[in-house]
Amino acid sequence: MIKPKNGFIFSTIFIFILVLSSSFSLWPQEKNSEELLTLERIFASREFVSENLGPVHWLNDGLSYALLENSATVKGAKDIVLYSAASGTRKVIVPASLLIPQGEDKPLVIDDFSFSDDLKRVLIYTNSQRVWRQRSRGDYWVLDLTSKKLRKLGQGFEPTYLQFAKFSPDGNLVAYVYKNNIYLEDLAIGQILRLTEDGSQDIINGTFDWVYEEEFSLRDGFRWSPDGRKIAFWQLDTSGVKEFHMINNTDQLYPRIISFKYPKAGETNSACRLGVIDIETKNVVWLKVPGDPRNIYIPWMSWAAKDKIILQHLNRLQNRNEIMLADVLSGHIQTIFVDEDKAWVEVDTSLTLFNKGTRFLFTSERDGWRHIYSVDFSGKAELLTPGNYDVIRFAGLDEKRGWLYFIASPENPTQQYLYRIQINRPGKLEKVTPAEFTGTNVYNLSPTCQYAFHTFSRFGQPPVTDLIELPSHRQLRTLVANKELMSKVKALKKSPVEFFRVDIGDGVLLDGWLMKPPDFDPARKYPLFIYVYGEPAGTTVRDAWGGNNYLYHLFLTQQGYLVMSIDNRGTPQPRGRDWRKIIYRQIGILASADQAAALKAVLKKWDFVDPERVGIWGWSGGGQMTLNALFRYPELYKMGIAVAFVSDQRLYDTIYQERYMGLPQDNPEGYKNGSPITFAHQLQGRLLIIHGTGDDNVHYQSFEKLVN
Q: What fold does the segment set 54-194 form as a domain?
């Protein structure tokens, strides 16, 4: 799901709305400029930038953490500082002065860092560069905290091309990926050993192709064994995957073609397999994962023991997830647990081994709700979180004290809170988040679950991050207060947001929010502008700080607009399996019908909404929903702004589109009727379509086909 990156798009949107002012005009009178927003204030300045912790890491002891702070000795640089969670005792463990390379006068700019287990060395990630969406390649340096010696890894390699460097368990070696091969570097002597030999444009070792990265969020593709003698890694063979071509018309005199492997729905995928390499002999054992490697997915794996790998294995339709255990000496595979669904299943990226590696925690919707199960290696599963509510995500396991922590919100799907249950007494739910934190609560628990970073926000209220003690939730100290941002947002002229539920018939209630103009008068008629996403990848109706999206919508209310958003069925709200999966094989069809039904109910309920001035806008999946709204329901929507949309579902990638729609050859009518392009001839209202020619995810091809 693509997010806005700068103010240009929004300036274009605003100009379009201004053009429509003859029918959408309700401009405010002159007011205090400090109280009113402008596009420049939101997008061109840093006035409303939210502070955050930046890279922060719990240490393995669970009692201390390390983060970056402004250096007291080197102006404009950062120190790495170690804190005791309980006492707040502070120690500068890596002063910026130690991060000045020989011959340079400035320290390294730290993008991220990690310590060896013995805390004798620190790995610095710097000069990071984007690979598709994330900055996942750059330079790595190692600082020996005993000798104070700093040196760069990968000497002789092209700068900024190292990826995912990680210490071995004993801290004496570092492994990393360089141009699709895995390398090993001995920190004592500086020797570099190439572990894989076949990396190329087609063969990818230790990292991933475009579609695995985008849809499974997989980038780091190798794992050290617990004893440091082996490395397990993914290998993808992209040969046979068709190339997508983009034209860069702007960087130089003649256009340049950018090509990359992109499997569209129904087309050939990369072949995926797992290997385990012995770092002493360089011998590779390939795990005997069953199935056609081009028609299965391996979206998760981890070491289960010295000689065992545990992995998740999906069929191409993604409706069967087999948890498998592999012997790394023989490559033999056995299936120990199966999660199935008539629609699709989710990959559990938080799968956690416990009880000395004999059991694991697994999240499944097998009983109609998303719950956490305790599973042994014979496949016997015990439900730990029974009830008619969804676990939003796993948060942590305090095995010593017998507590499982997770995020849920049984009463209000627009919010989220921390809960816990006792592993040996399943079902007795205990809410950990205090009542005063009504809204969205995000937690980063320490390994022992004794402490956590707690971030709290509400709709239109910027986030605050505290260090807390668990389970008391006692605040130990505030780490990010966002006081200046709080003050600026508080001063803006606005009306309070209203959360509501709308009945669209047959007992279906949809959640929504409404923002009104600051000087709202219920006796007047106002234009309504709807913000939509509507697909399975995200929700819009959340009681959480919305950043620039919130500020943009507040800006519109200051121009006299009502702004509304509704989550239709099929969005990932914590409202049960059936709510989320009812849209299977009909993306774009049921969702747009839900949105239209909700709008009809709103128009009937609220007299202050002008039915002749209803607009809608969205980005990515929301752009597709905008097109479907205007094309399918031209009598309801009078204008729309669709950004970076998919006009024909056949144009999008295999993993995402097939997960929710099945294969195109098995569901041709669904693909056709779910695609906005099928109904483009029904457009009656005013439509602005916006698309970047360099979009590698949702391609400009969708834009051109729709225009044609």
A: Lipocalin (2.40.128)
